[in-house]
Design brief:
Length: 358
């Protein structure tokens, strides 16, 4: 049997720790059991360490600031502690109900970033005012995270961070929010709410963000797109008010092969569409399905508009090979521009006429 001394020695050899044999956990894995603190394991972890959290309930807010940490849940459920403690993600978003600062379940952040002061004109979350050192290569996977009053997972200033196979339930403001990051990857997560929470997933990143194969339901906005060139691919959206919402001034987002169905009965009567492009440009919207977006005869599959507030034009957007079924109205292009392109969309109704089946 190997002595703990040898194990410790092996752990000093970085390559041994960083690259365990395929299918076998490294000797350097840390295991957290119910009753133990996940944060303590994170605080003791070094760059590249893997932390396995066993099945059970954990009542903690977590902060990750070390590169390369892999946090792996094996049936682990994370809930808010009795009282929140302030950390870097506190106030990243505010309660839409009463304006109070909220907290995240898992807060992953780079060092030296500064968040801009709260701006009531941009109420949904804070922006970055100063870029610092990115936190790199963090992985969070396999967690069930429930009921944080801000984001169930928040990322600020990440690079190559991967969030996968988590169940994010009842994150009041967001399921997952990434701000000011590069090459964020969120895939195969399930994001839902038992009421109707605000935003399931949001990318307000610098570049390279991809949200893929996520399953979203019961959120007001399923996917918020605020990253130039960001990609929303093969996600399913059910019973939300708005599927992808692409923000004013955002260029070149790609919305590919998503399936958006139904409309939540609690959406505000006038609100909602399968997808909204508000003053965004050069978006590629291809091979998505919009189905059963019905709202007392005014439900819309895709709604396109200039932004009345900033004046940003919806321009150069391309809508190709999308499939529309059982919507009150399939496409409503209310932009003043004439350079949005509609090709081979399988649909039955549009305003203005003529956007279908070209
Ligand atoms: C995690 O959440 C999902 C969806 O809510 C649920 O089906 C699954 O049983 C949960 N896992 C655990 C370990 O509680
Ligand atoms: C939590 O906060 C409440 C109200 O601020 C306070 O009365 C209570 O002592 C706190 N509990 C703990 C465990 O800190
Ligand atoms: C549906 O729209 C009609 C016409 O605008 C309105 O009179 C009616 O109250 C609406 N019904 C519901 C359930 O909102
Ligand atoms: C469409 O655009 C016009 C202005 O160009 C505006 O008055 C109207 O409210 C818009 N309709 C919708 C549904 O946004």
């Amino acid at each position: 049997m190997r002595s703990s001394f040898v194990t410790a020695l092996l752990c000093l050899i970085a390559t041994t720790c960083a690259a365990p044999a395929p299918g076998k956990d490294s000797d350097c894995d840390k295991t957290v059991k119910p009753g133990q603190s996940i944060q303590k394991a994170i605080d003791n972890a070094k760059k590249g360490d893997k932390i396995v959290v066993e099945a059970g309930e954990y009542y903690e807010q977590l902060t990750i600031t070390t590169d390369g940490i892999q946090l792996i849940g094996k049936g682990a459920k994370l809930f808010p502690p009795k009282n929140y403690t302030k950390n870097f993600c506190t106030g990243l978003s505010r309660s839409f109900a009463d304006g109070s600062e909220t907290d995240a379940g898992i807060c992953i952040h780079g060092k030296g970033f500064v968040l801009a002061p709260y701006d009531p004109k941009l109420p949904e979350h804070l922006k970055i005012s100063k870029v610092g050192d990115y936190i790199k290569n963090v992985v969070v996977t396999g967690f069930n995270i429930t009921g944080f009053n801000g984001e169930n997972i928040a990322l600020i200033g990440g690079k190559d961070v991967k969030i996968s196979k988590n169940n994010l339930v009842d994150g009041t403001q967001y399921g997952f929010l990434t701000v000011g990051s590069i090459d964020t990857n969120a895939e195969n997560n399930v994001i839902t709410s038992s009421t109707l929470s605000i935003i399931a997933m949001c990318m307000d990143d610098k570049s390279g963000a991809t949200f893929k194969n996520n399953h979203i339901s019961n959120y007001y906005i399923a996917l918020c797109g605020q990253t130039p060139g960001g990609e929303l691919k093969k996600n399913t959206v059910k019973n939300c008010c708005i599927g992808p919402f692409i923000d004013p001034g955002i260029k070149g987002m790609k919305i590919i092969e998503n399936t958006i169905t139904g409309r939540n009965p609690y959406c505000l009567a006038k609100d909602g569409a399968g997808m909204v492009i508000l003053g965004a440009s050069n978006t590629i919207v291809e091979r998505n399905t919009f189905e059963s977006i019905q709202n007392n005869k005014t439900g819309v599959g895709i709604f396109i508009s200039d932004d009345p507030v900033s004046g940003a034009k919806a321009s150069g957007n391309v809508f190709k090979k999308n499939l529309f079924k059982f919507n009150d109205l399939d496409i409503f292009n209310n932009a003043t521009t004439t350079d949005n392109v509609f090709r081979n969309n399988e649909c039955a109704s549009s305003v203005p006429d003529g956007l279908c089946n070209n």
